[in-house]
Structure formats: C-alpha cells, structure tokens
Amino acid sequence: MSLNFFLAFLLAFSFVQSQELSPTKIFLLAGQSNMAGRGGVNNDTWNMLIPPESTPSPFILRLSLNKTWVVAHEPLHKDIDSTKVCGVGPGMPFAHEILAEDPNFGVIGLVPCAIGGTNITQWAKGSNNYRHLVERADASLRSGGKIEALLWYQGESDTQDQTDANMYKERLYNFFTNIRSDLNCPNLPIIQVALASGYNPTLEEIVRAVQLENDLPNLQTVDAKGLPLEGDRLHLSTPAQVQLGKMLADAFLNNFPKPIQ
Ligand SMILES: *[C@@H]1O[C@H](CO)[C@@H](O)[C@H](O)[C@H]1NC(C)=O
Ligand SMILES: *[C@@H]1O[C@H](CO)[C@@H](O)[C@H](O)[C@H]1NC(C)=O
Ligand SMILES: *[C@@H]1O[C@H](CO)[C@@H](O)[C@H](O)[C@H]1NC(C)=O
User: Which pLDDT score, from 0 to 100, does residue 214 have?
Assistant: First the structure.
C-alpha cells in the first residue's frame, strides 16, 4: 500500500468518523471552576459519582481538546481545565434536560472552555482564554451545526478586590459584546449564572447585582444562590450542578424559542 493511498484511506476514515459524530445544536461553556465542574471534588479528589442526569448519551457530544467530537462524559472539562481536579458540572444535566423536554431537539454538541480560578480580566479580548474560546467555537462548526448559546458561569475571582468588583459590569459587558462580534453572531443568546459563592460577601453582592441586572439583549440569568455547596463553601455540589443544569435548560427553552421553520 503506497503512502498516498494510506493517507487517503486515513482521511476518508476520519471523514466518516466525523460525519458520524457531529452535532446540530452547539453550546459554548465558559467561565471558571463552577462551569468546569467541581461536583463531588473534595480535598483534590473526585468521588467519581455520576448522577443519572450526567450519564453519557449518543445524543450528547463534546468537543475534546484536540477539537474532535466525542461522546460526552464527565468530567466534561477534564482535558480543558486540566491543571485542576474536575468533577460534575452543569453541562451534562443541561443537555439531558433539553432532550427530555424536546426529544426532537437534535444532537447536542457541548464545547467546554471554562478554566478554574480565572477572573474576568483573564477573559478579555486578547487573552489566551478568549482566543481559545473563539478557536474552539470556530472548530465546533466545521462539521456543521449552529451555535445556539453561550453558557457562562464566572465571577467568584472578582470578589476578592473592591476595584475588580466595581469594574465587573464594564469588563463583563465588553467580553459579551466582543465575543458576539468575533463569533459573527451579534444576537448570540447568553445564559449567565449569578454567583452562589464568593470570597467576600460584600463584593459578591456587587458582582451578583451586575449579573441579576441583566440589561443586554438576549442575555438571561439564572441564580445559583442557595444551591448546596461542597465542603469548601465555594463549589457547587453534584446535586446542585444537576439542578443548575436543569435551570439553564429551562432558561434556554423558555427564552430562546425555535426559529420559525
Ligand atoms: C478533607 O480533608 C479534611 C482535613 O484532612 C477532612 O477533615 C475532611 O473530612 C476531608 N473531606 C472529605 C470529603 O474527605
Ligand atoms: C482526540 O481526543 C479524543 C478524546 O480525548 C480521542 O478519543 C481521539 O483519539 C483524539 N483524536 C486525535 C486525532 O488525536
Ligand atoms: C486577574 O488574575 C490575574 C492572574 O491571577 C492577576 O494577575 C490579576 O491581577 C487579576 N486581576 C486583574 C484585574 O487583572
């Protein structure tokens, strides 16, 4: 077998593979640790307990680090937020709830991009996180499909310093506006999560007020306050992530109706 023939075979094979695994509805997941998922993580160890709402399904794919689609399984961000111990996050329960409410929704593609411990400045246009988000979003479209929304859960790291909290709205809205523009999707639906936790209660309220104020078009907020936390008092527990995933799904289905066919 000649080398060229072999390469052609490889190409054809990967083409067939990518044809098999390609989503029709794509969601970007970004932010910090609670989007990446720390459910079931204590003392830097994940308990490996996967709730029914987070089990793999042939209708739920994830864009892996190497930008190929694979059947999604927890921890969804394992190869993305790779310097931390990842656990259960909101992505899988979100996708399961969408499919439960709308069985004809289509194959869902999740694009994990969240990085633990990042402040909003580290997501500004020009940053590595921003560039990776745009690159992964672009890659997610190569096999077809459409980006339906950005799910965003971030801000805990901006509750440590008064100036960061005061600047949160300007920095957040710049990020949202820039990412919509760079994805060529000026009306991209965004669903953000209002913080359940933070480092300083006063500054957490400043950030939460920005998140709950919610005054950009096509921006929705779900409030994670009150959901159960892990022992670190910072990270949502596995049951909390399941509930959050359902809240995100409801916010999407209730606020961003299907285009008229
Ligand atoms: C984590 O470690 C602390 C201190 O060693 C211990 O008290 C706690 O029980 C541990 N938590 C879990 C969930 O293992
Ligand atoms: C890409 O990553 C996925 C998941 O980690 C793996 O299964 C697959 O073999 C990788 N593909 C390539 C071409 O490296
Ligand atoms: C954001 O995080 C980076 C990295 O930890 C840090 O250098 C920076 O001071 C933080 N705050 C701002 C406003 O950039």
Answer: 84
